[in-house]
Amino acid sequence: MDEHVIEALGKTRVKIKDGKVVEVGEPKIEYCPIFDKYRGIKKLTAKDVRENIEFRINDFGFCTGERTLRMQDFLSFGVSETLNTAVEAGKIDAVVTVCEGCGTVILTEPELIQGIGGRVSGLVSTTPIGDVVKLLGVENILDPETAEINQIKGVKKAIKMGFKKIAVTLVSAADAKSIRELEEQNPNIEIYIFVAHVTQISEEDAESLFKYADVITGCASKCIREIGEDQAYFRAGESIPIYGVTEDGEKFLKMRIKKIGGLKDKKDPKIPKPLL
């Protein structure tokens, strides 16, 4: 029996067992402009969340052995899109991220980065799914026996695999600090930290992320947005801003913006409600 816990749209806690949604919590966010735009949802409810996760299961095998792992670039904008552009351009060698059924994984192909990262909500915990492990290859998974999620160990594995320019996706300020310390211990390695899923983050952790990360998504975080605007970091997007905190972070975002032909200005951008 496989079991997966995610924090999905509205930061709603969802549990999936053997391809079935078995638990759905209450959304912490009432309104998300992304799901309004693509799904016409004006107010998130537990029913909306359940239907969305069931759609993902039926559409691309989310949390099942039928998972479609690859996805073409549809010229949208986000963290996974920015990462696949940087890998395609040779600016990043490998991406340490997470995949349901595998845990922490090391990816080098743009279509895998997009197909996995672009379709995984905040993954809290997961257990192995044999068919997905086989598709990705045990050599690219931190622990195929347990599907452990540990981004610090994942970066260490990527270093052992010989990669020199490594990006890692994180949700934890503590992990960001530890990874910068790891980078200091490996002077020939460059590590780029991309942070997402920051809704409800504390002010202290938000400040720490801006100290250590290269790219941070605003999500529905009040603290991240306030710091990002107050410090005038490079920002891409308005409804869900993404901040280029470092020169490298700004460079990666601008590469993606150039590839998709620029971002359109919005007259009255809608934002998540409430910001937490």
Automatic annotation (TrEMBL):
Q: Name one Pfam family in it.
A: DUF2099
Q: Which InterPro entries match?
A: Methan_mark_8
Name of the molecule in the record: Methanogenesis marker protein 8
